[in-house]
Design a protein that fits this description.
Layout: H1 2-26, E1 52-53, E2 57-71, E3 100-104, E4 109-115, E5 123-131, E6 146-155, E7 159-167, E8 193-206, E9 209-218, H2 225-228, E10 240-256, E11 263-278, E12 286-301, E13 312-323, E14 335-338, E15 341-344, E16 346-357, E17 362-373, H3 376-380, E18 390-404, E19 409-423, E20 438-452
Length: 453
């Protein structure tokens, strides 16, 4: 028996160098240790995904994110984020007199990416992504898993067909905030993620310029009427149709986009959405949803080699008009007018941000975002329930700094100023205060630690 054990031990010792050589030969060379960011971006958002095998090739990734937020007012159970409604507590309210200090790791995220078999010359892919922000009312040790994205795609060189749950086609700009809200309720309505079918077509004009055309049909989740079935007529809501038409050019090189992760080219173009629904409170008459806008991304200081972020600067901007689009935060509410004679609530949004990387690993972002009602008089004269305390406008001013300690670990700090101007203000008892308005202001300091994997 001793001879057997001795033989096994000797075999393992002899095999160890060979095994080590094999691992060294095949291991990815992306652990940059102290000279971080050998890739453009940390974590799996660089070229760091290592396929494993399931039925098809499978990549696993995501990030751990710990947030600390100090708020000058109490923003409630989801206080680590800017309010999803855009409403900052009125200065006269009890919530405005209370500060808030909150930690959370719920924004941590993981995903599975699949590379499947080909189909008539196309690649097939799929993604499932989740975080832990399903119900912020639960205790910190028992958050709910939440599906963020779940889609499959068939991708040719210039044509892509996607089906499943993915980001809303309306509003391409995502504010580069550490705040996970990403400005969605303050003029950059990049959410929600909705079930959809989407076709993307690239039209090459010449080697440096192309058109990117996107057309999709999406879940028409305008309001609760879509789910209650409270209709006397034959249908409730038609699907939303959304589209983009963008010019993409290599003329100015590339510069960092959201969180400094992608390197984007000059892009400019238009986007829009249209839908219609029967509404129970409107005697089952239809109320339209629509929106259209302009988007641009400008590499002001381009990357020297298309990968390195040192001394790069970008500007991203967007503006839009919208009606009855509270479902994706493009407008603050749905309808104005009186029951039985409702009209879509109209508004506009705009945003602009700069992203600057003085070095490969140090990034700074600053921006201004604004969402506003269009035609205050329509809201002031409305008798519909949502008209009281309507948001005349709200705004978000932010600046943040992030530093990549190595290829996985990032530290970021942020300051945000949130402001809401209210109209048709009611008192505590609900009575109107004619001609008066109210405001709410929040000053937020945020610290975040990330581990990308």
């Amino acid at each position: 028996m001793k001879k057997v054990f001795g033989f096994i031990a000797a075999t393992l010792l002899l095999a160890a160098p060979v095994m080590g050589a094999e691992v060294t030969a095949t291991a990815p060379a992306y652990n940059c240790d102290f000279a971080p960011s050998c890739e453009v971006a940390p974590g799996v958002y660089g070229k760091m995904a290592s396929p494993v095998t399931s039925k098809f090739n499978l990549s696993i990734g995501g990030f751990v994110k710990l947030d600390y937020a100090y708020n000058s007012v109490n923003l409630g159970q989801s206080g680590s984020l800017a309010p999803g409604t855009g409403q900052v507590p009125k200065t006269s309210s009890a919530l405005a007199q209370r500060e808030q200090s909150i930690f959370t790791a719920r924004q941590s995220r993981f995903w599975l990416k699949v590379g499947g078999p080909t189909f008539f010359g196309a690649k097939t892919n799929a993604l499932i992504e989740a975080d832990f922000y399903g119900d912020p009312s639960l205790a910190a040790e028992s958050p709910q898993l939440r599906m963020r994205q779940a889609w499959g795609s068939i991708d040719w060189a210039n044509t892509s067909f996607l089906f499943g749950q993915a980001y809303d086609t309306f509003g391409p700009m995502v504010a580069s905030t550490v705040d996970f809200r990403s400005g969605a309720s303050f003029g950059t309505p990049n959410n929600p993620r909705v079930p959809q079918i989407r076709l993307t077509q690239k039209v090459n004009l010449n080697p440096d310029n192309a058109l990117k055309l996107v057309l999709g049909v999406q879940d028409p989740n305008q309001n609760s009427n879509n789910n209650t079935g409270a209709y006397s007529t034959s249908f409730g809501a038609a699907v939303n149709v959304a589209a983009q038409a963008m010019w993409v050019s290599k003329a100015l090189g590339v510069a960092p986009g959201y969180w400094g992760l992608p390197m984007n080219s000059l892009t400019a173009g238009f986007f829009g959405l249209y839908g219609s629904q029967k509404v129970a409170d409107n005697s089952n008459r239809s109320v339209d949803s629509w929106g259209y806008g302009f988007y641009t991304f400008l590499p002001l200081l381009k990357s020297g080699d298309g990968k390195n972020r040192a001394m790069t600067l970008s500007f991203e901007g967007q503006g839009y008009l919208a009606a009855n689009m509270a479902f994706n935060s493009a407008t603050a509410t749905t309808f104005t007018g009186s029951t039985g004679a409702l009209a879509p609530a109209k508004g506009y949004g705009l945003g602009g941000q700069f992203i600057f990387y003085p070095t490969q690993d140090l990034g700074v972002a600053a921006g201004y975002l604004r969402r506003a009602a269009l035609n205050y008089g329509r809201y002031d004269n409305s008798t519909y329930a949502t008209a009281n305390n309507y948001q005349k406008y709200n705004q978000n001013i932010f600046v943040n700094v992030n530093y990549d300690l190595n290829a996985a670990v990032r530290v970021a700090v942020e300051y945000e100023n949130l402001y809401t101007q209210y109209g048709k203000v009611t008192d505590v008892a609900g009575g109107p205060l004619a001609g008066l308005s109210a405001t709410g202001t929040a000053n937020i300091a945020r610290l975040a630690l990330y581990y990308f994997f």
